[in-house]
Amino acid sequence: MSEQGIGARVKRKEDKRFTTGKGKYTDDVRHENQAYAAFVRSPYAHANVNGIDASEAEAMDGVIAVLNGAQLTGDEIGNIICGWAVNSKDGSPMNMGAWSALATSKVRYLGDAVAVVIAETQALARQAAEAVLVDYEVLPAVVSAVKALKSDAPQLHDNAPGNLIFDWEIGEEAATDAALAGAAHITEMKIVNNRLAPNPMEPRSAVATYDEAEEHYTLYTTSQNPHVARLILSAFYNVAPEHKLRVIAPDVGGGFGAKIYVYPEEIVCLWASMKTNRSVKWTSDRSEAFVTDAHGRDHVSTARMGFDENNKIVGFKVDTVANLGAYMSLFSSAVPTYLYATLLSGQYNIANIHCNVRTVYTNTVPVDAYRGAGRPEACYLVERMMETAARELGVDPSELRRGNFIGEFPHQTPVIMAYDAGDFAGNLDQSKEAADVAGFAARKAASVANGKLRGLGYSCYIEACGIAPSAAVGSLGAGVGLWESAEVRVNPVGTIEVLTGSHSHGQGHETTFAQVVADRFDLPIENIQIVHGDTDKVQFGMGTYGSRSAAVGLSAIVKAMDKVEAKVKKIAAHILEASEEDIVIEGGQVKVAGTDKAMGWHEVGLTAYMAHNLPEGMEPGLKEGAFYDPVNFTFPAGTYICEVEVDPETGVTTIERFTAVDDFGTIINPMIVEGQVHGGLAQGIGQAMLEGVVYDDDGQLLTGSYMDYTMPRADDLPFYKVLHNSTVCPNNPLGIKGCGEAGAIGAPPAVINAITDAIGNNDLAMPATPQNVWAAIQASGKSIAVQ
Amino acid sequence: MYSTTYHKPASIEDAIAALNGGEDTKILAGGQTLIATMKQHLAAPSDLVDIRAIGGMSGISAAGGALTIGAATTHAEVASSAEVKSLCSALCDLAGGIGDPAVRHQGTIGGSLANNDPAADYPAAILALGATIKTNTREIAALDFFDGLFTTALEENEIIVSISIPVPQKAAYAKFPQPASRFALVGVFVAQTDDGVRVAVTGAGEDGVYRHQGLEEALGSNWSASAAAGVPISPDGLMSDLHGTAAYRANLIGVMAKRAVAAT
Question: What is the predicted ipTM?
Fold first, then answer.
């Protein structure tokens, strides 16, 4: 392994600018004629809008305009759409309610925007927004998806009777019922997956500029996928023609899914820039982020898993109600269906699976993909069921899993996915060894002697990443293909620019992608520049989410490099008068193997661009592009083991050990991968023990700031033991599976399984705050046992 | 934040003049609550009168069996004071556990007491230690000072100058932080004083800080963790919210009292 190639712990090239305050984020963009937007937002969860009086705001000095939804629709700006069509099981299409970027007659969640003020300063815009008087007629609200399905619940959208968006199923119900009927043991649980707010460090921001003379728009925005944003803004929202709109997503400080979507604010800023002929900037603050960034999770499920007399799983049946909030966000329909129920086989050989999912409107912030997106919900369900079943059956939870592991690949599950590679038993063995499971009993005895409880929990997770084969997702309703693009430009001096459709918002692509190129052409990593995030620079690409950048984006780069290499060899063979097959690229040179004939890599570049002496018929230049469409998802998998100590008097839980063994396939930069795992685990532990969005019954947000929403802090988290057990992915050129979401997917059940083991009560909901743990201990009677 | 006029008087007289001179004036004594409230547009005072530069407003001294702490003394100064450490180390522990370092270097004891946040730490100590709050016009006993949520005996534009704290025989503070804000979900300050045992509870009461009679009686006759643990704590009159039901808070009062006594 070289010091800079695949497998090397290369320090991140981008960190110099990030750690010295030189990063350039959207809010850092300031144009000469900069104006600022502030939104007038509903303080109610559900209300009719009977009128808007902006006269006082409009009269304020420095207020440029106050714009509303009637003007927006008058200008034929389109409604916000969900880009993945999921039909109900009876074949009827999903009931997508109209979502205008500025509400016209009705608001449906606290934070729904009804007007926007454009002013000379941000402070003035916000002040003027408070002066806009909106005549609200408050309506009853519903925030729980289960309650929203009841017959007397308030109705959100006329075209969604009963607030039902769709009623969908996967798998064979009759066969699953029959298998469960014949089971020797059935484990049944009601499992809630708590709603989360994504909280990227950088809040969302947009700077839109309209050039009247060119009739051209430029949008700086905090996006994970600037080309997709441009496509949607032009094709669906009618804000600007695609060839007259440049979208730039510069440095972006974390996304976690929340920055995939095009939100009302970007649409309104673009539209307002044309209306006012000013550059319009909007930057969310943290309070605004809590009520506008798409939330994640929020499932309520009941599950039944049947086992035969040999403790083999015979059937698994799940019923899920998924809360999608007030409107259907861009991929909201796919998350609780194709990204969720298709993973319900877990790592196990299960012949019969059936899952029914009802998606529901409520008076809450729209819900969409958040780190893991559906897969954490599936993993949490499967892995809590397995642990609980083991307790009920009186067997070691790791052995119950082992006895049901899939051992041969490829493996077709009954819920679409075909797993291509893995070593589930190897992951389990390695993690048990590293976590010293053998020594747990002694550690538990020491805790008990000290008046504490101690527990250990497993999670054997699997996820589908490398999203996704275009034809496959198209057949399931996706409105886009999920390939990726790349262009590799070798400059005349031999340096290389790689234009990628992937987008880096913390992942370190400028380093890892450069490592792969350096490795391939044996060049110094400093000679390689990764370009992304600007639709004027980069060819159409699909962006970054679903742990896809390495598995899909890098594969496109590899394909483009294949073409570059072929041309380099042709040129060198021509100049060096050798056969193409004998040309090798190494050490900055292009050589004829076994001879002293060679030319510098840069000389090949120069030759290509001088074009004085190229093989007959060859085009000048050295620049190749490629599109890569994956043939399958990739399947990262692993075993996480969490060990906790619980103070029975207060419910305070500390994670004493956390061991992660992950199979990510080929790893480009272990340091960056470990960082991804650490971050994912922090978010997973956050969901399990700390975080949770809570509304009151009127739809007021109780967790609207860090005073009440518990973000994980350093002292909440343990030191992790992070290890790898890589099996190569057979379906992409580098054998990569993806690592971005694993921690957030695998951690929650490991944590909750450990705490429930400690307290002897399986009935514990996330987040397992001290209060919730204490209450569960009271219910279990364990507090008396310790005292 | 809306615009406001900032005053930094050097004397009480100038401060009073500034306070009387504005339309809607507020005393600024560190601003760890007020400034945040203003940023959220929940308060919009016309004038802020920063009292920290007034002579004699900050500093710590000991004489005649009492500690005197100036109203503008920061939490960090109290936490690191050798004098406080030797005479009432529980107060150092309490001050060192407020907020984060930035808060502790700006926030002041006078500001905390005047604000009387039901989840603040200082009110528990001041009540349990039987302190006296000295203002520009009078002296107020701690027992008479706290008057419900965010309410005190202070008159409009009355300025706390210093706090006089009788040195206790024994004292300790045990705090259970609310997981998100890390304010006290329950904080219990126990003290053995010349006037007997006092136990003050913050974070839990519907009316803010209060003394717990049952714990005072039990610890008055037997100063031990087990005596504290044996006291039934009623959830009646306790707050219930997202982070703690009244029942959970009642449990924590017992546990924190026990742990505080064990720490003395």
Answer: 0.96
